[in-house]
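re the bet — no i am not wrong, look at it urself. input seq straight from the record:
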Amino acid sequence: MECLSFQNLQALSALLSPQQDEDEEDNKNVSAYAQMGPGNIGPPPRQDKEVSTAYAKNSSNNIWSEEEVAEGPQYDDLADPRPQPEYEIILKQSVGTEDLFLGLSGKDPSSMCCEAMVVKIKLPDTKATDVILDVKEKFLDMRAPKYKLGLHLPHPIHSEEGKAQFFSEREELEVTLLLKRPIDCIVMQ
């Protein structure tokens, strides 16, 4: 391998560095259309205050605005003063010995392999007969005398299949919903 001398390095640097004097002279001779690029397509950007305030609103950490959420607003009752109860969403999957010890079925702990969703709702000072429950494909609506819960579900479910059970000793409503998975027709190996 041959070593480059200092003069050779300077010559290489001069060759690779942009020559501004020649570029400016060349740009004067080139027509205005040849100097345009992709950023010049369309109307020029507006520089008024409306654009900057709209950008400031969109530059927050929110990934969507409230106006973009269209599903379930018919269940929202802003005049209802009842508080939302504490709840927990748990995903379930059926696991057998072939999964646990041998790993033969190809299941993993991800939510893709889950078959059901359990929603546990704490309802202190509530009777089972006072609870009204309505379940849609992507929305759970629970009403009680002291509480209300409008919950957008993280996965679509079979609204006709599922069960609800009220545990008086824990004062908790447990709703088990079967997940509607679009990839059920694909056999995972």
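see?? Confidence is low (pLDDT under 50) at residues 51-56. told u. also The domain at 74-179 is CATH 2.60.40.790 (Immunoglobulin-like). so pay up
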